[in-house]
Amino acid sequence: MIETLLQLSSGAASGSTTGTGNSYSFIILMVVLFVVMYFVTIRPQRKRQKEEQEMRNSLEIGDEIITIGGIVGKVVTIREEDLVIETGADRTKMKIQRWAVNTNKTKMEQHRKEVEAAKEAAKKKKEEKAAAKGKAVKGKTEKAEESSEKKEEK
User: What pLDDT is stored for residue 130 in this prediction?
Assistant: First the structure.
């Protein structure tokens, strides 16, 4: 791709016979490259930032959190831009900025349990479906055996 860009730019600079065609294709190529870069890097980063902001805004008193510095604590007080957390066995209180929260362990555990419950429900449903299918196959085989026995009797 880089080679193509270099060829297009050198062709336009050398003044080839199709100079306008090359310059249009170069512009189109640059636009396509920008669109690809947007969807590969910028959009996922914005999505991640939005999720982090939602997590920070949904903090509640009693949530166990981990800060960007690695401090683990329980939220005691919530204000506009800062939190007070308790940490350690001696319940030391620390005031931190809301943006310094990295992970909400309480919400993460709840989400993990919900995912496990959903997987378990899907597994049970799949097993029930397989069992029902097995009964249907078993019923068909029994009917086939009965009909073959009747034919043998005749």
Answer: 85
- Count how many Cα atoms sit within 13 Å of the Cα of residue 2 in the half-sphere of its side chain: 0
Q: Name the H helices within 15-104.
A: 19-37, 43-57
The encoded tokens of residue 94 equal 């620390």
Task: Give the alpha-carbon dihedral of 93, 97, 100, 106, to 10 degrees.
Answer: 60
What kind and span of H or E run contains 101? strand 101-104
- Per residue in 31-80, pLDDT tens? 999 999 999 999 999 999 999 999 999 999 999 999 999 999 999 999 98
State both tokens at 5.
Answer: 């860009």
**72-78 vs 64-67, strand pairing mode:** antiparallel
| For the chain, domain boundaries | 2-55, 59-104
At the top level of CATH, which class does the domain 59-104 belong to?
Answer: mainly beta
- In the block, tokens 């378990």 appear at 120
Dihedral pair phi/psi, residue 75, rounded to 5°:
-70, 130
Query: Computed from CA positions of residues 94, 99, 102, 104, in that sequence, does the dihedral angle turn out positive or negative?
Result: positive
* Under 8 Å between Cβ of 136 and 120: no
Q: Among all chains, which residue has been given the structure tokens 């997590």?
A: 55
